[in-house]
Structures are given as structure tokens and as C-alpha cells.
Specification:
Elements: E1 15-19, H1 24-35, E2 39-44, H2 47-59, E3 63-68, H3 74-84, E4 89-92, H4 107-135, E5 139-144, H5 157-177, E6 182-189, H6 198-201, H7 204-213, H8 223-233, E7 244-247
């Protein structure tokens, strides 16, 4: 009898694009892919932060390069992906949140969040998939969604709406692109402590609400996302597409 062998989590020889890589979850995803051997293009609007990240990754023995990119600008995104691709792996971590009670949502805030979280994410994913199809290559595309794609939340009507939308187009794209060998999935984190979310955690009532909902009794750290990204990007998840990987400490279990 020959024992089966676990597929590799390595990404040697793969080219990855990580959007929203200048901080937080996106930065951690870039490091995770670099650790696994991928050549990582880190993209965001803040080129200075990206260059600092590339310096750190290179010093750690990883292969990385910086790309200034505003995902909300569809034409610029398409051009950048066409010029720098094809990419075997995409992690889209670019996102925006403007929280308020639903009765106070302004059209300006709605448009800003939707333009990046839905429209930008959609057309970035489309651009990377087109590049793979032209090259005749398979690939793994990963959208950083949210547990709010499955539930609602205080002051989060717009944000939750955009993440529900991400889940919808992720599933539809998985159906369309499966025969081309292009897999597409989402990662749905709970509240993760980053510089961008720190203002929420310093509010005692909101922190208490969060910690009560997370069954494991702690908030997320960026390291909690890194293994999931390596898994979905690699051959270890070769039969996984159209799925949402919940990293929510049990929030949505009830």
C-alpha cells in the first residue's frame, strides 16, 4: 500500500499580487505568500509604505516588489494588471469601512465604500482572471471578505452590504471560471486588531459586544489569517472554489 501524500503548501515559482498590502491583513498576507516562496507584488496607494514592506521582505529572504495602485480606479487597475501580470495568485485585501447608524448613512459614504469594496474588488478580480485566461494558466484568487458577509452588525449596514456582495460575485465567478482551472474563494475574518480597527477596540461597549460574540474569547490577530491564505493559494486547496473560509472564532456559528 502506498500512503497518500499531503499536497504542498509551497508557492515556489508562483507570482502573487496582494492589493491593500501596505498594512494590517494585507501586509500579513503578503508575508505569508512570501514565506511560502511566491514572488509577491505588493500593491496599495501608499508607495512609501510599500517600499518599506518590500525592504523588510527582501531582508527576510523573500522576493517582493512594490506597485502603486488604487483599486477603486478601474481603468488604472486593468492597465497595471495587464502590464505586470499574469499573476498566479491574487489576494484582494483593499477595503474601506465608514461606520454609522443606517439612518445616518450619507450617499457619499455609501459610494466610497461600495466603489472600493464591490466595484474595485470585482474588476480587480476580473483583470487577474483575464490575464490568466490569455496566458492559458490556472490560478487562485482570494478576496478578503468579512464575517459581516454572513451576518449584520451595529452601525455596519453599508459595510455588511458590500461584503455580502463580494460573496455573491465570488460564487458566480467560481462557477464561470472553474473549467479554466481558476479557483476563487473568500476569507471571512472576525474583528482583527490592526491600526485601522484600534479605534473600535478602545470603546468599552463595542469591545464587550465583540468579545461576547467571539466564542473563542479573543479578538483576531493578523497571524490568524496567514495560514488560511497559504492554504487557499496553494495546491493544498486544489478542489476548493466558490467557498468562504470563516476565521471568526465562532461568531457565525449560532
Amino acid at each position: 500500500m502506498t500512503l497518500p501524500k499531503t499536497p504542498s503548501f509551497r508557492l515556489d515559482g508562483k507570482r502573487a499580487l496582494v492589493a491593500g498590502a501596505s498594512s494590517g491583513i494585507g501586509l500579513a498576507c503578503a508575508a505569508a505568500l512570501g514565506e511560502a516562496g511566491a514572488e509577491v507584488t505588493v500593491a496599495a496607494r501608499r508607495i512609501d509604505a510599500l517600499e518599506a514592506l518590500v525592504e523588510q521582505m527582501t531582508a527576510a529572504g523573500m522576493k517582493a516588489r512594490a506597485l502603486a495602485l488604487d483599486v477603486a480606479n478601474v481603468d488604472a487597475t486593468r492597465a497595471a494588471v495587464a502590464e505586470n501580470g499574469p499573476f498566479d495568485v491574487l489576494v484582494n485585501s483593499a477595503g474601506l469601512a465608514r461606520h454609522s447608524p443606517a439612518t445616518d448613512t450619507s450617499p457619499e459614504d455609501f459610494d466610497a465604500v461600495a466603489d472600493l469594496n464591490i466595484k474595485g474588488a470585482y474588476f480587480l478580480t476580473q483583470a487577474v482572471a483575464r490575464g490568466l485566461m490569455v496566458a492559458g494558466k490556472p490560478g487562485s484568487l482570494i478576496n478578503i471578505s468579512s464575517q459581516m458577509s454572513k451576518v449584520g452588525g451595529l452601525d455596519r449596514a453599508v459595510y455588511a452590504a458590500t461584503k455580502h456582495a463580494v460573496e455573491g460575485f465570488t460564487k458566480s465567478m467560481a462557477i464561470e471560471w472553474g473549467k479554466a482551472g481558476i479557483r476563487i474563494n473568500s476569507i471571512c475574518p472576525t474583528f482583527v486588531l490592526t491600526d485601522l480597527t484600534r479605534s473600535t477596540f478602545v470603546q468599552p461597549d463595542k469591545r464587550a459586544w465583540i468579545e461576547d460574540k467571539i466564542k473563542l474569547g479573543r479578538v483576531g490577530e493578523v497571524e490568524d489569517i496567514m495560514g488560511a491564505v497559504q492554504y487557499l493559494a496553494s495546491d493544498a486547496s486544489a478542489l476548493v472554489t466558490g467557498s468562504a473560509l470563516m476565521i471568526d472564532g465562532g461568531w457565525t456559528a449560532e
